[in-house]
């Protein structure tokens, strides 16, 4: 009886202390992280666009996912569904989070059809469509740091993260650990391809969590930026 009692106490002790030890191991990583980097300083505002919302929409003071779906948004259900299911559904409860889809004027009916395809009777209050002239759409797109262009229909399957201060966020160095070990050339991540499920599910979701953590720490006065900025990346390039 004594042996079984001792064994039971040992097992209970292990079950109790293992989670505690695990949390202690995670503690430093949750307080010492690199903020999501600023890749562009001046994203344009939405002053030349109308919207489907009763309230006036703006990027400033919001954490925004910005997308461009072109003249026939209903033809782009796959990337939009990925964005809705893998990002919007996860983050729609976060304060000041929104998704803004930019469309040319005249695509309103196609946007309504698209909304029916992805809605599923869920809360879509933080998913917005804005409409503008082609030149205004191109101007907004050109204010972003991009590696791809809008097609002839003003569409791209890439989306962008814009912070509350109209700064575009991303990664100045998107290399994997193995690529860094091999000293491969630095390459950035300015946008997220909604066709690539892994990129949206892993990279984009992780980057948004980091950005929300940054703003939460700023509110608490605990934010300490230790990220590698453009100058640091340039130094690494000069060493190669």
Structure in words:
The longest helix has 30 residues, at 2-31. The protein is α+β, with helices and mostly antiparallel strands and 240 residues long. It is built from 7 helices and 8 strands. The protein has one domain: Glutaredoxin, CATH 3.40.30.10. The protein is globular, with a radius of gyration of 22 Å. 44% of the residues lie in helices and 17% in strands. The chain has helices at residues 2-31, 77-91, 108-119, 134-142, 177-181, 197-220, 230-239; strands at residues 37-40, 50-51, 63-69, 97-104, 127-132, 155-162, 168-170, 192-193.
Query: How is the biggest beta sheet arranged?
Result: 8 strands, mixed
Q: Compute the number of structural domains.
A: 1
Shape: globular
Strand runs, count: 8
Uncertain parts: 22-32, 227-240
Q: Report the average pLDDT across residues.
A: 84
Return the string of H and E elements. HEEEHEHEHEEHEHH
Structural class: alpha+beta
Top CATH class = Alpha Beta
Number of helices: 7
Helix content: 40-55%
Using the 3D structure, state the CATH architecture. Answer: 3-Layer(aba) Sandwich
**C-alpha-based Rg, rounded:** 22 Å
N- and C-termini, Cα separation: 68 Å
CATH-defined fold name: Glutaredoxin
Q: Which percent range describes the beta-strand content?
A: 15-25%
CATH superfamily: Glutaredoxin
């Amino acid at each position: 009886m004594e042996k079984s009692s001792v064994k039971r106490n040992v097992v209970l002790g292990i079950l109790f202390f293992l989670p505690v030890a695990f949390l202690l191991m995670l503690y430093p990583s949750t307080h010492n992280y690199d903020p999501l980097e600023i890749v562009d300083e001046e994203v344009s505002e939405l002053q030349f666009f109308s919207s489907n919302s009763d309230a006036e929409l703006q990027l400033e003071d919001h954490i925004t996912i910005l997308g461009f779906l072109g003249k026939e948004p209903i033809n782009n259900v796959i990337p939009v569904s990925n964005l809705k299911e893998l990002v919007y559904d996860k983050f729609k409860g976060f304060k000041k989070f929104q998704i803004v889809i930019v469309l040319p004027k005249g695509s309103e009916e196609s946007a309504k059809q698209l909304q029916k395809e992805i809605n599923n009777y869920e809360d879509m209050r933080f998913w917005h469509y804005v409409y503008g002239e082609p030149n205004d759409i191109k101007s907004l797109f050109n204010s972003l740091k991009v590696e791809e262009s809008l097609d002839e229909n003003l569409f791209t399957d890439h989306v962008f993260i814009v912070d509350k201060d109209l700064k575009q966020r991303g990664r100045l160095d998107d290399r994997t650990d193995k690529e860094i070990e091999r000293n491969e050339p630095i390459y950035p991540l300015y946008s997220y391809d909604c066709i690539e499920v892994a990129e949206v599910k892993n990279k984009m979701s992780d980057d948004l969590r980091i950005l929300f953590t940054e703003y939460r720490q700023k509110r608490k006065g605990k934010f300490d930026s230790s990220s590698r900025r453009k100058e640091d990346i340039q130094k690494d390039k000069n060493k190669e």
